[in-house]
Amino acid sequence: MATTTLTADTIADTIKDNEIVLVDFWASWCGPCRMFGPVFEASSEQHPDIVHAKVDTEAEQQLAAELQISSIPTLMAFRDGVLVFNQAGALPAPSLEQVVTAVKELDMDEVRAKLAERQTQV
Questions:
Q1: Which of 21, 43, 82, 109 is deepest in the core (most CB within 10 A)?
Q2: Which residue is catalytic, options 22, 33, 55, 103?
Protein backbone atom coordinates (compact mmCIF):
# COMPACT_ATOMS: atom_id res chain seq x y z
CA MET A 1 0.00 0.00 0.00
CA ALA A 2 1.37 3.38 -0.95
CA THR A 3 1.33 6.36 1.35
CA THR A 4 -1.70 8.63 1.52
CA THR A 5 -1.58 12.43 1.50
CA LEU A 6 -3.54 14.02 4.34
CA THR A 7 -4.91 17.53 4.59
CA ALA A 8 -6.76 19.46 7.26
CA ASP A 9 -9.97 18.22 5.61
CA THR A 10 -9.05 14.51 5.65
CA ILE A 11 -6.88 13.88 8.70
CA ALA A 12 -9.63 13.53 11.33
CA ASP A 13 -11.69 11.01 9.31
CA THR A 14 -8.58 9.03 8.37
CA ILE A 15 -7.57 8.71 12.03
CA LYS A 16 -11.13 7.91 13.12
CA ASP A 17 -11.86 5.37 10.37
CA ASN A 18 -8.68 3.27 10.61
CA GLU A 19 -7.27 1.18 13.46
CA ILE A 20 -3.65 2.31 13.02
CA VAL A 21 -2.47 5.45 11.24
CA LEU A 22 1.15 6.59 10.99
CA VAL A 23 1.56 10.21 9.92
CA ASP A 24 4.83 11.63 8.59
CA PHE A 25 4.98 15.43 8.76
CA TRP A 26 7.51 16.63 6.18
CA ALA A 27 8.51 19.31 3.69
CA SER A 28 10.25 19.05 0.32
CA TRP A 29 13.12 21.36 1.40
CA CYS A 30 13.94 19.21 4.46
CA GLY A 31 16.98 16.94 3.98
CA PRO A 32 16.14 14.53 6.84
CA CYS A 33 12.56 14.34 5.51
CA ARG A 34 13.86 13.27 2.10
CA MET A 35 16.02 10.60 3.79
CA PHE A 36 13.08 9.30 5.84
CA GLY A 37 10.64 9.27 2.89
CA PRO A 38 11.89 6.00 1.32
CA VAL A 39 12.02 4.32 4.76
CA PHE A 40 8.40 5.33 5.40
CA GLU A 41 7.37 4.20 1.89
CA ALA A 42 9.04 0.80 2.42
CA SER A 43 7.17 0.41 5.72
CA SER A 44 3.88 1.12 3.92
CA GLU A 45 4.68 -1.77 1.55
CA GLN A 46 5.57 -4.11 4.44
CA HIS A 47 2.47 -3.21 6.48
CA PRO A 48 -0.53 -2.84 4.15
CA ASP A 49 -2.80 -3.17 7.23
CA ILE A 50 -1.57 0.20 8.52
CA VAL A 51 -2.38 3.56 6.94
CA HIS A 52 0.88 5.37 6.21
CA ALA A 53 0.02 9.01 5.61
CA LYS A 54 2.03 12.14 4.87
CA VAL A 55 1.32 15.78 5.66
CA ASP A 56 3.24 18.39 3.69
CA THR A 57 3.82 21.04 6.34
CA GLU A 58 4.34 23.73 3.68
CA ALA A 59 0.94 23.08 2.11
CA GLU A 60 -0.76 22.45 5.47
CA GLN A 61 0.78 25.11 7.71
CA GLN A 62 -2.39 25.61 9.75
CA LEU A 63 -2.71 21.87 10.43
CA ALA A 64 0.97 21.63 11.40
CA ALA A 65 0.50 24.55 13.79
CA GLU A 66 -2.62 23.01 15.35
CA LEU A 67 -0.73 19.77 15.97
CA GLN A 68 2.25 21.70 17.37
CA ILE A 69 4.71 20.40 14.79
CA SER A 70 7.87 22.37 15.56
CA SER A 71 10.44 20.10 13.92
CA ILE A 72 10.34 17.94 10.83
CA PRO A 73 10.22 15.17 10.07
CA THR A 74 7.83 14.30 12.88
CA LEU A 75 6.16 10.92 13.10
CA MET A 76 2.84 10.48 14.86
CA ALA A 77 1.11 7.14 15.40
CA PHE A 78 -2.59 6.83 16.16
CA ARG A 79 -4.32 3.66 17.31
CA ASP A 80 -8.10 3.56 17.60
CA GLY A 81 -8.10 7.35 17.25
CA VAL A 82 -5.68 7.87 20.14
CA LEU A 83 -2.26 9.50 19.68
CA VAL A 84 0.15 6.85 21.02
CA PHE A 85 3.49 8.01 19.57
CA ASN A 86 4.89 11.44 18.65
CA GLN A 87 8.56 11.97 17.85
CA ALA A 88 10.57 14.38 15.75
CA GLY A 89 13.52 13.17 13.71
CA ALA A 90 14.15 10.77 10.87
CA LEU A 91 14.02 7.17 12.05
CA PRO A 92 16.13 4.43 10.52
CA ALA A 93 14.15 1.44 9.21
CA PRO A 94 14.75 -0.80 12.28
CA SER A 95 13.50 1.94 14.62
CA LEU A 96 10.39 2.54 12.52
CA GLU A 97 9.74 -1.21 12.59
CA GLN A 98 10.01 -1.12 16.41
CA VAL A 99 7.41 1.67 16.52
CA VAL A 100 5.06 -0.29 14.23
CA THR A 101 5.42 -3.44 16.36
CA ALA A 102 4.90 -1.53 19.61
CA VAL A 103 1.78 0.22 18.30
CA LYS A 104 0.33 -3.08 17.06
CA GLU A 105 0.96 -4.72 20.44
CA LEU A 106 -0.56 -1.97 22.59
CA ASP A 107 -3.32 -2.97 24.98
CA MET A 108 -5.75 -0.20 24.09
CA ASP A 109 -8.00 -0.89 27.09
CA GLU A 110 -4.99 -0.13 29.29
CA VAL A 111 -4.14 2.99 27.25
CA ARG A 112 -7.72 4.28 27.54
CA ALA A 113 -7.75 3.57 31.30
CA LYS A 114 -4.54 5.57 31.77
CA LEU A 115 -5.95 8.43 29.69
CA ALA A 116 -9.14 8.44 31.77
CA GLU A 117 -7.09 8.43 34.97
CA ARG A 118 -5.06 11.38 33.71
CA GLN A 119 -8.26 13.27 32.88
CA THR A 120 -9.52 12.94 36.45
CA GLN A 121 -6.24 14.31 37.84
CA VAL A 122 -6.45 17.51 35.81
A1: 21
A2: 33
30 tagged catalytic = yes
3-state SS assignment for residue 35: helix
Q: Omega before 32 cis (within 30°)?
A: no
Residue of 30, 67, 72, 103 with catalytic role: 30
pLDDT mean for each 10 residues of the chain (122 residues): 89 96 97 96 96 97 95 97 96 97 95 89 77
pTM: 0.93
Q: Say which CATH number the domain at 17 has.
A: 3.40.30.10
* CA–CA separation, 14 and 40 (whole Å): 18
Phi, psi of 7 (to 5 degrees): -130, 175
pLDDT, residue 120, reads: 87
DSSP run (H or E) holding 80: none
Q: Does the annotation count 33 as an active-site position?
A: yes
> Looking at the 3D structure of the chain, how many domains does it have?
1
Residue-range definition of the domain harbouring residue 12: 4-121
